[in-house]
Every structure is written in C-alpha cells, then in structure tokens.
Amino acid sequence: MRGWILRNQRTTFLIASGLSTAGSFAGITAKGWILMHDTANPLLLALHFAALAMPSLLVSGRAGELTDRLGCEKVLIRSQWGLLSGASLGAIAIPLLSGTSQIVLLLLSTLVVGLSSAFELTARNKYCSLLVDEPQQLAPYLTSFSVVFNVGKLIGPPIGGVLLALSGPTAALSIDAASYLLPIATVVWLLKPNRAAEQRSQQGKAGSLATAWRECGAPLRHVLVFTALACLAVFFHPGLAPLIARQVLGPSPQALGLFTSVLAAGSISGGLLLQRNSHWLSRRPSLLLGGCTLLTSLAQLGMALPAGSGFKLAMSFAIGAGTAGLLAGSNLITQVAAAPVLRGRMAGLGQIAFLGGGGLSGLLAAFLSLRLGLSATFALMGGVGLVLALWELTLRPRTLLEVLENPGVRST
After folding, report:
1. H or E element: which one contains 182?
2. Where do the domains of the chain lie?
3. What span, in angstroms and rounded, lies between the C-alpha atoms of 240 and 32?
C-alpha cells in the first residue's frame, strides 16, 4: 500500500484534498443556511463570505514570503492545523451557543479558516511543483486541483443539505472539521516530495512581495491586475448564494444545495476544459481570462432577465464555468510562467487578486441588492464585467506568454 502511494503521490494528494474540500463545502452550506434562516440579512451573508475571502488581502503577501523563505511543506502543514482549529470552532458553536453569540462564533470560525486558507493555498501551489517529475507535468496537475476542488463543491453542498435536513447543522460542521485530518495525515506521513528541487528566497528585501512584483514581468503584472478587476465585477455569487438560491428555487436547505451544486457542475466543466488545454491556454492569458470573464458577464445579464428557474439554473451553470476558468486560469498562468523562487509570492499575489476582489465584490453586491434588488445587481455588475472582457479581448488579443523551462517569462 505504501509503495502504491509513493508511486502515485500526485493522485494521493488530489484525493485527500478533494475529500477535505467536500467536507468544507458541507460546512459552508450549513453556515450559510443558518445565517440566512436566522437573520435573512444579505449583508450578513456577504460578511460571512468576506471573512473567508478578505483575509487574503491582509496575509497572502506574507504567506507567499514565508512560503518562499521557510519552505512550502512547513507552511502547508501549519496552515492545515489552522484550518482544523477554525472549523472546530464552527462545530462547537451550534450545540453550545444561540442567538447573536452563535452567529459571532460562526463568523469567527470562518475568519480563522480564511486566514489559514490564505497560507494553505499559497503553500500548496508551490508544493505541487515538488510532486511532479517533469516541468511539463505542472500545468495539468495544477488545473487538476481546480477540477477536484469543484467536484468537492458539487458533492459537498448536497451532503450539507441532507445533513441539515436529517441531523441539523452540528453534523455538517463536524464533518467539515474532521475532513481536515486527512490532508494533514497525508502530507505528514505519506508523501515524499522532492525537497531538493525547492528554491527558497533570501531574507530581507530580495525575498519581499515587492521584489516578486517587479521581477515577475509586465505580462504577469497585467494578469494579476485584470484578474482583480474581473473578480470585483463577476465573483460575488459565493457570498450571496443563499439569497440567490432562495429567489431562484426556494428557502429550503436542499434548494441551496441544488443551486450550489449546479454552480459546481459548471465549474467542473470549465476546469476540465482548462485542464485539457492547459499548455495552449497558459500562453494566451488575454484569450483565457477575457473569454472567461465574457462568459460569466453574459450569464449574469441572463440572471437579470424575468425568466423561469430552469433558465436561471442554466445561467448559474455558465457562471460556475466562467469563474472557474478565470480563477484557475489566473493561478495557472502565474505559476507556470514565474521563476520557481517566486512561486510562493506569486501565489500570494494571485490570492490577493481573486479572493480579495471577490470579497469586495460580495460586499458591493450585497449593498446593491438591498438598494436596487438582486436582478438589478446582476444587470449592473454583469454590464461592468462585459466591458472589462471586451476591453481585454479587443485590445490585447495577440498577447502570448512564452513559458521557459529555465524559469522566466517574456511577452511576444
């Protein structure tokens, strides 16, 4: 058994991460339904998502610096223990507390998970490069995580919805906490990465986030800036998923599970398409990111139309596909086109771009939905995303990145 694991390290790590993701989304579904059921306040839902995403603005840069300086494996293990601790807070909030104190502890749990996730995602990106045998294997392996992540998104919400209906939120949140034990055990005891291949940065200015920003080159800086702007316009649906599901399908936890599963099914489709074309698309950032933003924006405009639930579920599928391609594509480009010594910090900059932009987008969309209504919010933000996408596709259509085996990148 141990021999099979060592021969299939990449698969083992993917499976452990996928099971953990499924448990995590069961917990997120439970928390979102509790907040919506108890308060019916979209701003509180947006605050919940912001607590998960916004820490990236605060700590992802530092996470990238520590990953490059201390080593990705050490940072990965510590961050996974942080995820377990944060999820455990949510699990104990339900049986021990009620009312405002329960909501506060649930939000605190999400904040701890968000802080730990910033370190975990940054370290995991660089850790993947230590599990591949050839540089050409990195691009499809990184995109495999997008597929596995979205499979977890697909099966996690129905699990959360069923557990909510049958056993209450405590069971869903307990599974969320327990799911983090598997990747911890996998990294600590089962995997043997090629530690000698890791390139670490020096202390001081040479290992700073600002140095990585300067040295990564103008093409990658543009990728990061466009990703942040696009996410600000089109990546608000995770924070408002319970509100959107209530208006599209109804208020039950099963309806929320169905809605998020449709989003995840779209994300899986987008991730598979990206995985199968990872080498070709990673050299064409404007086509990849602009096209995904265009698809998501058009789907958001479709959500603004007075149509039936079937049509809106189809638009939700397209939103899932578009945002998965945008986020996974940005991560792919900034990893394979950056020098190995910069990859931790590039992952941190990527998180600041897409999770920070998404957190701000959720807060903005929640405010607009209170003032204008959900349909008008979809129309307004979808229109902004459409302008961004057309700008990227028309003004930078031939931008190519040449990914070199000797780490570096140049625009042609």
Report:
1. helix 181-185
2. 2-191+209-411
3. 9
Amino acid making up residue 90: G
Query: What tens digit of pLDDT does each residue of 260-299 get?
Result: 788 888 988 999 999 999 988 988 999 999 999 999 999 9
Alpha-carbon gap, residue 321 to 266, rounded angstroms = 4
> Does pTM top 0.90 for this prediction?
no
Which residues of the chain, if any, have pLDDT below 70? 1-4, 6, 397-400, 402-412
Amino acid 371 reads R
Task: Give, in order, the Cα–Cα distances in Å from 247 to each of 55, 203, 225, 313, 406.
Answer: 29, 52, 33, 12, 52
Query: In whole angstroms, what is the distance from residue 327 CA to residue 26 CA?
Result: 21
Looking at 1.20.1250.20, 3.30.470.20, 2.20.25.90, 2.60.40.1470, the CATH number of the domain 2-191+209-411 comes to 1.20.1250.20
Nearest to 293 by CA among 340, 210, 223: 223
Structure tokens at 403: 């990914």
CB 219 within 8 A of CB 334: no
- Model pLDDT, residue 380: 96
SS3 of 401, please? Answer: strand
117: region left, alpha or beta (phi > 0 left; psi from -120 to 50 alpha): alpha
What span, in angstroms and rounded, lies between the C-alpha atoms of 111 and 149?
20
- Write the Ramachandran bin of 373: left for phi over 0, alpha for psi from -120 to 50, otherwise beta: left
d(CA 399, CA 270): 22
- Whole-number pLDDT of residue 1: 61
Residue 32 carries which side chain, given as an amino acid letter? Answer: G
Q: Please answer whether residues 113 and 87 qualify as being in contact, where contact means their C-beta atoms are separated by less than 8 angstroms.
A: yes
Which single residue is written with the structure tokens 């190995």? 340
> How many Å apart are CA 29 and CA 156, to the nearest integer?
8
